[in-house]
Amino acid sequence: MQRPLRHIVTKMREPDYGLPVLLALLVLMGFVLPSLGLEGSNERLYGDIAASLMLVSGVFVASGERWTFILALLMTIATLATRWAVWFSPPGALGAWPELVACATILVFSLIILRQVIRPGEVNLSRVLGAIAVYLLLGIAWASAYQVAEHFFPSSFVSSTTQPASATDWIYFSFVTLTTVGYGDIVPVHRVARSLATGEALAGQLYIAVLLARLVSLQVSSRHRPNG
């Protein structure tokens, strides 16, 4: 039993295995679960399970160096503790702490993976998967930030349908803003909410432009590097 588990852990620490798992879980969180039409506690439960698995897989991806592994592990433990404590606490007892800690952890994951993506070397599939994972992580992080803004400043957003309340609503609005699609069915009205939305739209566009420039320069450099 210990040998297969150790083999799985070892493989997960390799980018070729860990990154696809992380990417699959991000797609599950951001696109699959919201499309299932889950409601109430079921939506929360499945979302928390997917988020927990995503965080654990992120620890493996961030385990390339000792300090990044320790940082990712500590922040993941804090995030899981606050997220699952909500289930055993009175409503609203933890305030915005679960989302604040989750947002900080996801941003740390993004920076660690981005550091691996843009480091010198040949552009390969792992870098491309890492770049996509960072983009999706940014969307998830901003979704948490919107929930925090709504907690401290109620009615920071208005909607043409129902007031955004669930995690899937915030994820939807976040990715619509990140890609600058902007359907207009959810609109930020508070100055803090507007600043967050503007920042996400700018980050989404700048990330793609800067990342492409960096990857192209890395590929050109690797081709012109002398062999041997």
Overview of the structural elements:
Helix content is 75%, strand content 3%. α2 packs antiparallel against α3 (40-61), α6 packs across α7 and α6 runs antiparallel to α8 (191-224). It has a single domain (2-224), classed as Helix Hairpins. Strands 1-2 form a two-stranded antiparallel sheet. The longest helix is centred in the C-terminal third of the chain and has 34 residues, at 191-224. It has 228 residues and is mostly helical.
Major sheet summary line: 2 strands, antiparallel
The percentage of residues in β strands lies in under 5%
* Mean pLDDT across all amino acids: 87
- What is the subunit arrangement here? single chain
Q: What CATH architecture do you see?
A: Orthogonal Bundle
User: What's the CATH class label?
Assistant: Mainly Alpha
Q: What structural class results from the helix and strand content?
A: mainly alpha
Amino- and carboxy-terminal Cα gap? 43 Å
When the domains are counted, the total is 1
Radius of gyration: 19 Å
Kindly summarize this structure in a few lines:
By secondary structure, the chain is mainly alpha-helical. 75% of the residues lie in helices and 3% in strands.
Short descriptors:
228 residues; mainly alpha; Helix Hairpins; two-stranded antiparallel sheet; 2 strands; 3% strand
Which helices and strands appear, and what pairs or packs with what?
Layout: H1 2-12, H2 15-35, H3 40-61, H4 66-85, H5 97-118, H6 125-152, E1 157-159, H7 167-178, E2 186-188, H8 191-224
Antiparallel strand pairs: 1-2
Helix pairs in contact: 2-3, 2-6, 3-4, 4-5, 5-6, 6-7, 6-8
